[in-house]
């Protein structure tokens, strides 16, 4: 299959979107760190200023207390009143600065929480994009599997159809190819109807699955003809396996009115895979034709 350019477009868009989101995430993280450092620096400077004012005020109040003691000894004077008012004014200023500091700390805390929330949202978006893409690719894959199943699976029997034959042989060449043809299947359709004929084909493929190995591939070649691809097997083992398949004819199905209809016998042609799938099918078909001429319900292997 030739690659289609459209397949790569979602991946290119994913890479571009991821890089863009990473850049935004990096810029936001950098800005978050910068603002946080600025806020911490501002808080430290504010606390340092508060300590300086507190120290200055303590010294001033101690000085004022000393001077008030001297003034009491010398008698009440106007400067004493001014110094007392100045000390109270300093205390009021300190209280105002402390209140402003508390308000600023609350605001700083709110800004830090907002920045942290923004950081978390960016992280969620960064993770959401690949997760969304993975979900989308999974849905597309499931849809492709369903479409492929419709393309390569026989709708009646559930085994592979003729389209799958060439594709699978191109990838994995089998050791042997078996061709089966149900004997007198047309008479069953004419006598019991096509619905009974379909039921026989379904039951036959089910029994065929049970009799074969997991590595063997069943293909409905057309109508009442089937092909089985045998892998990793020698001729004697393949012959024994085919002989065992003939026991399928002992089973039966239940039709309308509880009527039991035995599965028909079948003729088998076996050929070693050589040259191409067409050549191998022709040799298996020739062996099958010999069985039909000899009276059906038999087995023949191509030279």
Q: Which SSEs are present, and which pair or pack?
A:
Elements: H1 5-74, H2 78-152, H3 162-171, E1 176-182, H4 185-192, H5 194-211, E2 217-222, E3 225-230, H6 235-245, E4 252-254, E5 260-262, E6 266-272, H7 277-293, E7 299-301
Parallel strand pairs: 6-7
Antiparallel strand pairs: 1-3, 1-6, 2-3, 4-5
Rg result: 46 Å
Give the overall pLDDT as a whole number: 77
For the termini, the CA-CA separation is 35 Å
Q: Which structural class should the secondary elements be placed in?
A: alpha+beta
Spatial order of the strands forming the largest sheet:
2-3-1-6-7
What's this model, at a glance?
The N terminus is likely disordered. α1 packs antiparallel against α2 and α4 crosses α5.
Which characteristics define this entry?
two-stranded antiparallel ribbon, 303 residues, rod-shaped, disordered N terminus, single chain, alpha+beta
Explain what you see.
The protein has 303 residues and is of the alpha+beta class. It contains seven helices and seven strands, in the order αααβααββαβββαβ. α1 runs antiparallel to α2. The longest helix has 75 residues. The chain is rod-shaped and about 145 Å long. It starts with a helix and ends with a strand. The relative contact order is 0.08. The N terminus is likely disordered.
């Amino acid at each position: 299959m030739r690659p289609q350019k459209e397949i790569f477009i979602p991946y290119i868009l994913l890479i571009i979107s991821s890089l863009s989101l990473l850049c935004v995430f990096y810029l936001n993280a950098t800005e978050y760190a910068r603002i946080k450092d600025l806020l911490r620096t501002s808080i430290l400077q504010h606390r340092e200023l508060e300590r300086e004012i507190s120290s200055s005020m303590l010294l001033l109040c101690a000085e004022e207390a000393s001077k008030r003691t001297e003034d009491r000894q010398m008698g009440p004077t106007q400067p004493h009143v001014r110094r007392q008012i100045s000390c109270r004014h300093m205390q009021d200023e300190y209280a105002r600065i402390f209140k402003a500091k508390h308000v600023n700390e609350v605001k700083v805390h709110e800004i830090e929480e907002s920045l942290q929330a923004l950081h978390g949202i960016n992280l969620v978006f960064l993770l959401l994009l690949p997760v969304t893409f993975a979900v989308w690719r999974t849905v597309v894959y499931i849809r492709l599997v369903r479409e492929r199943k419709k393309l390569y699976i026989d709708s009646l029997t559930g085994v592979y159809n003729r389209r799958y034959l060439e594709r699978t042989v191109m990838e994995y060449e089998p050791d042997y190819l078996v061709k089966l043809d149900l004997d007198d299947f047309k008479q069953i359709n004419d006598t019991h109807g096509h619905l009974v004929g379909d039921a026989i084909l379904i039951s036959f493929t089910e029994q065929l699955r049970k009799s074969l190995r997991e590595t063997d591939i069943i293909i409905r070649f057309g109508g009442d003809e089937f092909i089985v691809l045998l892998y990793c097997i020698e001729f004697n083992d393949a012959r024994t396996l085919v002989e065992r398949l003939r026991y399928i004819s002992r089973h039966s199905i239940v039709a309308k009115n509880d009527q039991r209809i035995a599965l028909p016998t079948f003729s088998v042609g076996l050929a070693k895979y050589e040259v191409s799938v067409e050549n191998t099918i022709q040799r298996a078909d020739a062996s099958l034709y010999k069985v039909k001429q000899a009276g059906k319900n038999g087995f023949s292997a191509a030279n």
